[in-house]
Amino acid sequence: MRTASQGAPGLAVTAGDVVAARARIAGHVVRTPLLPASWAPGELWLKAESLQPIGAFKLRGAVNAIARLRPDVRARGVVTHSSGNHGQAVAWAARAAGVPAVIVMPEGATAVKVEATRELGAEVVMAPAARRERVAGTVRAERGMTLIPPYDHADVIAGQGTLALEVLEDLDEIDTLLVPVGGGGLISGVGIAVASLSSRTRVIGVEPELAADARASLARGHRVEWDARSTARTIADGTRTPVVGELNFPIMRATVDDIVTVGEDEILAAVAALARRSRLVVEPSGALGVAAHLADPARYGRAVAVLSGGNIDPAVLFRALAFPV
């Protein structure tokens, strides 16, 4: 678990990278509000990344990664593979930079997500889910585009970490930052920033019980891959990544204090509480931190939960609202 108080040598991203990313993305990415959840037990604050222009924190990393490209490289365009928030983030950032973007999406992706990505100006290429990365690699090679991966990329990690800078400026004496964990891009960036700026603040990741590969990885000291058939069962679709990224894992080992898990009903109850009590529409992955806090508020003290996204399927929201609050 956490070994770094000032970052750690040899990691792919430094606190300086996060600070530099903040300057690059200013004017493109919203400084999202930090909102009190006065209805929750204990003391809980909400970092509402669901209010970004594409409804998710992913915009931070995408904007930073594209801004870091040399002008001649950027002009050839960017490509990524994604079925959700990262694809829309890259499409949005590419349009803002005036460069072409290709998003490789899995066959079977919802028509709403496909159309939303096209509306952002990107070219969408459909591929079998198991071949998305290979197809993206082919596009990169044939067109000379730059690949912007969803999480396993230094500039993406640095961009995601900028939200932690905002949190630490907006609230003093934070005991715990509760961060959803999928591939590890968000928690890696947050961990780097917090390790440098606030030794008192714990960084705790939150995963669904059905997709707890990051918790297993930190416990065993190496990356552990879960069966995709298992991770596909969680309602928190943004965390279904079966293994954390190669760059992300050593950062997590150095800067993350713990990873906890929550059950499916706890996740849906958190979605319902956010909708009914805070008037915030949050996707299941984005509600993980709130679910963890509600399960054990005394453990986290003065806590901030990162609401990582708000792009929820209406049917899932309807299902969540059936839970009592």
Automatic annotation (TrEMBL):
It comes from the Bacteria. CDD domains: Thr-dehyd (cd01562). GO terms for biological process: D-serine biosynthetic process. Keywords: Lyase, Pyridoxal phosphate. InterPro entries: TrpB-like_PALP, TrpB-like_PALP_sf. Residues 27-309 form the Tryptophan synthase beta chain-like PALP domain. The keyword Lyase applies. It catalyses: L-threonine = 2-oxobutanoate + NH4(+). Its cofactor is pyridoxal 5'-phosphate. The keyword Ion transport does not apply. Gene3D superfamilies: 3.40.50.1100. GO terms for molecular function: ATP binding; L-serine ammonia-lyase activity; magnesium ion binding; pyridoxal phosphate binding; serine racemase activity; threonine deaminase activity; threonine racemase activity. Belongs to the serine/threonine dehydratase family. PANTHER family: SERINE / THREONINE RACEMASE FAMILY MEMBER, SERINE RACEMASE. This is threonine ammonia-lyase.
